[in-house]
Amino acid sequence: MSELNAKISEITKEKSGVKRLTLSDYRNYQSLRVEADFSPIIITGENGSGKTNILEAISFLTPGRGLRSARLGDIKRIGAKAESGWSVAAEILKNGEEYLIGTGVQKQISTEHAEDDDIHSYERRIVKINQQKIAQQSELGKYISSIWITPQMDRLFQGGPQPRRSFLDRLVYAFDLEHAKRTANFEHLYRQWFQLIKQGCKDNHWLGSIEQEMAALGVAIAAARRELVARLNTFILHEPDDVFPDVRLEINGIIEKMLDDKSALEVEDFYVENLAKQRINVVYNNSVDGVNHTDFKVYYKKKNMPADLCSTGEQKALLISIILAQTKCQILNKGFSPVLLFDEVATHLDDKKRDALLEKICALNLQAWITSTEPQNFNFLAEKAQFFEVKNNQIFKTKGS
Q1: Distance CA 89, CA 104 (A)
Q2: CA atoms within 13 A of residue 332's CA, in its CB half-sphere
Q3: CA angle (301 as vertex; 150, 225 as ends), nearest 5
Q4: Which helix (H) or strand (E) holds 105?
Q5: If you ran DSSP here, which 8-state letter would residue 350 be given?
Q6: Contact 246, 302 (CB under 8 A)
């Protein structure tokens, strides 16, 4: 066993993950409870039965909008009482220590900007840790972390950069708990700035103040992305996988690249000036250079080939390489194991790579929730995994084949 694997094994001796999961009026489930082991958890069932909904619920125990980036109003079960909301509760372990985490929606009443005493209601997500409300979702990252692969990510390397950028930022969250807040604040300021310009605002002081804030946040976002990519590239260089292909990661963004040879203050000054110069672009086509246009590039190292030119199977293998490197880095950096959420992960993998991935998950000694319509793919895990079947909006414990 290598020194690195020995360190990982020492950390993962103390179990981390979801011990009990409870859902209420969540998607297709009126109520659901799962008692989970700290091993691979195989969830099978027909398409549309609600397997992915369970993984999504777990993803809501971490900062962000879950693995589907869903709107809060879309999650509530159809047919639930109008006054009720959805909720996810879990008993989790972090290195053997128990914590209670809960999240859901709560109706809020607002009369701000209302006319004729109109009352406006809206839904707001709340989060509790050990029964205490917390103000910042980022606090969740101190207790539980998750990494996921979904079928939608099979197309990650095709099309526009937004999904790849979101994927990169999600990887950054695990190491920098403030990154999610910075990106959310940047997006809020950008929308505000965009609307002001579209409405013909000529107040340079107001616009300039927003641009200063955007630039400061943008440079911090770019620096965090660069640090994550450097960390993973270094890890992959020194700890190449024996089955999945080595990857080379690259950030293609004007602000990120400027940090190669300029100080953060110099880049921030440039960003402010550039935003002011590009106000006219917003009026006509919304084309503004910055961290909101950054792309995340992945290369098949051995072939020196961009991922978008690789085969579908190669692209899936490259994605898994990144996920495995991220998982190991997180364990070493945070001192506890992330929960893996793999939705139909076997798709586009040949038998050898599928079995190798499952063996690696077992070797890492961490909790992984894996969905599939084909339970026979997991036959050799009969003695190593916990098996469930989803049917008729319920979940049943089964035996491995």
Answers
A1: 9
A2: 15
A3: 60
A4: strand 97-110
A5: -
A6: yes
| All residues at 6 or more sequence positions from 180 whose CB lies less than 8 Å from its CB, including other chains | 63, 64, 137, 138, 169, 173
Strands 17-26 and 29-35: antiparallel
Read off the tokens for 30: 């009126």
Q: Which helix (H) or strand (E) holds 33?
A: strand 29-35
* Distance between CA atoms of residues 27 and 350, nearest Å: 32
Phi, psi of 379 (to 5 degrees): -55, -40
- 204: Cα separation from own chain's centroid: 37
Going across the sheet that includes 305-306, the strands are: 247-252, 295-300, 305-306
**C-beta of residue 56 within 8 angstroms of C-beta of residue 66:** yes
CA distance 34 to 19: 8
CB count within 10 Å of CB 162 equals: 12
Q: What is the pLDDT of residues 345-400, one digit of tens each?
A: 998 999 999 999 999 999 999 999 999 999 889 988 988 999 999 999 999 999 76
Other Cβ atoms within 10 Å of 384 Cβ, number: 15
**End-to-end C-alpha distance for the chain, whole angstroms:** 31
Which residue spans within 279-374 are E strands per DSSP?
Answer: 295-300, 305-306, 339-343, 368-372
Question: How many Cα atoms are found within 13 Å in the side-chain-facing hemisphere of 241?
Answer: 28
- Kind and range of the H or E run holding 395: strand 394-398
66 backbone φψ class: left, alpha, beta (φ>0; ψ -120 to 50): left
Residue 38 is classified by DSSP as S
321 sits in which H/E element: helix 312-334
Going by DSSP bridges, is the β-strand pair 120-129/97-110 parallel, antiparallel, or unpaired?
antiparallel
| pLDDT digit string, tens, across residues 15-47 | 999 999 999 999 999 999 999 999 899 999 999
Alpha carbons 172 and 26: distance in angstroms, whole number? 28
Cα gap 235→328, rounded to integer Å: 9
Q: What is the pTM of this model?
A: 0.93
Residues with Cβ within 8 Å of 279's Cβ and at least 6 positions away in sequence, in order, are: 197, 207
Tokens describing residue 46: 């027909």
In angstroms, rounded to a whole number, what is the distance separating the alpha carbons of residues 124 and 120? Answer: 13
